[in-house]
Backbone:
């Protein structure tokens, strides 16, 4: 992701509700699984895609955790 795209993605994540962030997380996990299956079946996805998927998952988890810390919604421990 380019820097401008990254900033836009972060802003988008901050505006989403915890439920929407959960849906985004599921979508990214499916993408990551798909990349793994492509590698296992002999197709060669670009190696950078693995890192991008992993980082995007981390971004979503961070946004979700920040919202929980602020008390916006979600589960509390």
Residues:
């Amino acid at each position: 992701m380019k820097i401008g795209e990254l900033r836009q993605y972060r802003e988008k994540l901050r505006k989403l509700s915890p439920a929407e962030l959960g849906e985004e997380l599921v979508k990214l996990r499916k993408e990551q699984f798909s990349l793994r299956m492509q590698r296992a079946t002999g197709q060669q996805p670009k190696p950078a895609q693995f890192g991008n998927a992993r980082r995007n998952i981390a971004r979503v988890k961070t946004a979700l955790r920040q919202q929980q810390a602020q008390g916006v919604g979600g589960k509390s421990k």
